[in-house]
Amino acid sequence: MAVFVEILKAVALAVVVFTFLAVVGAMYGVYLERKISGWIQARIGPMHVGPWGLLQTVADTVKLLQKEHITPRRADWLIFNTAPLIVAVAGLLDWVVIPFGTAFGRVLVVRDISIGVVYFAAMASLTVVGILAAGWSSNNKYALLGGLRSASQMVSYEIPLALGLLWAVMLAGTLSTVGIVEAQRASGWFLFKVPPFGLIAALTFLVAATAEVNRVPFDLPEAESELVAGYFAEYTGMRFALFQLGEYAEMFAMAAMAAVLFLGGWLEPRMPLWVWAGLGLAALAAALFIRFSALRRVLLVRPILALAVLGAVLCALMVAGLAAGRSPVLPSLLWFFIKLFALVFFLMWMRWTYPRLRLDQLLNLSWKVLLPVGLVNLLITGFLLTVAR
Amino acid sequence: MGELAAFIILSAVILIPAVVVVTSPNIVRAALSLVPTFLGVTGFYILLQAEFVAGIQVLIYAGAITVLILFVIMLTEGGSGTHVRQVTAQVPLGVTAALWLAFLLLLVLPRTPWPLSAGQPPQYSAPAVGSAFLTTYVLIFEVTSLVLLIALIGAIVIARREE
Amino acid sequence: MTVGLPHYLVVSSLLFCLGLYAVLTRRNAVAILMGIELMLNAGNINLVAFNRYVAPGAVGGQIFALVVITLAACEAAVGLALVMAAYRSLETVHVDEINLMKW
Predict the structure, then answer these.
(1) pTM higher than the cut 0.90
(2) CA-based angle A138:A129:A62, to the nearest 5?
């Protein structure tokens, strides 16, 4: 009884908070994506609307809101209009179990469910129902092909995803996401646990997560060059935007989950003072080198300069804080977002670097590489853990 | 009170789409209506404080089995299957059997003295379920995994195109 | 009035009857499988409800519900593979047209 009311409250809170957060987050996710793609392709990306093009995606959203809703004549209107909602809601519901950090003595998480990790996997797997429904109801062969590709892809990549989740669960001994982060407080990041198996598990998880959110190199369901836009080819206006929202919400959620599972979530990395000082000096040296050489004029190098300066500032803060004897030097929210954006950047970098896989290569990768690797990894790690105990 | 309201809402969420599943002439709508039914059953599991079963229910039923069913519908009849007759000549028999069974069950259920016992289930069921699976029910666990493996191989062999 | 065991049993028996109706009347083999899934779900509700109200301390009912979910996945995979194979050789998924073996 109480459980149900709690869940109802949690869902209401999640919907209110994350509708806002996700709309803003997805808008800036798109902005970031366009800027990073510009950087990788030696362009400057959006520049016209607002300073450095910051308001470009706001303008795009306003434009999309004004567009007419078109339902194709032979489409199944009920399913056609419900499908974007399923995708967007499932993407947003992922966020219920993601812990952001600690403040005022409590963990910032919508709901710390005792089966948080299972819940996450379940919500991630719900998206495919919406995608398949959209693909079929559009009454368009490209959309149907996209939907079918998406179904086969997501059903096969759920298994390596679950194996990656299980690896962290096995080490932490709990299914709760907050519990997993707390377990890393004592033992350090799971990424470096039982080397090299932590790294293998993280890679399995990340590859499967990329496939699960249909991004390049696994974007066959929407492959622009073959299928127009795949399952959302027939969608216009805000319904199209809802698909984008769901996709970005889920991508950020996957990155956040990877940070929680393998990078210690909101915890501050614990390294001795001299490591921080060395890292800071290296970043400073790189920044100074770029600033005072001819490289400064190269378009590609400017973001590196900005990142190096930010890194140097971060390391300087850490050194100062550690020297003053503070234990968590910076607020936990900041660490969580640094890890989240590092992973998001990694995903975007992959997107603009690798070509798309063929469907048979995609399925082979899942069933013949990731699945055996994940299983063997789980087995060996379990064996090592029990022997060590 | 809240529990009763939740129960009634969830019952509606289970039964109304279930009626669509069994009666809709449009096979794809019928298959998609499985999703709310399964989610409603998940809500029942949460009400019954079996949260691990609830999580697995969403993961397997809503996320995998429905997708598999939709996949096969689209590979076989697809959208063309919405305009053909969907029921056999057995409708009178089916109606009679279903109504008769429902009548009997509803007659019997309230009159049966169930051996109820009060008490609270464990706060978090997942650890209890896990340890029970590997101790008391280990044989069932092993046999189920064997059946799963056999079904996996069997499905591949059956569905494979013959050379 | 609180929710008790009979409430769950009533809903699950209605769900079971709906599934039975689908199995008996549908032409499409996939729809018959959908009816079977409904019936399995009804059974699962019973298992978990009995677990909760008859033996709250134990987890036997939940264990069996999990086993049933696993077997339902197996059943769906094999059943749908059979439908695919039948469609490939007979070009129909309607059970009243698959009558080669019928005398």
Answers:
(1) no
(2) 60
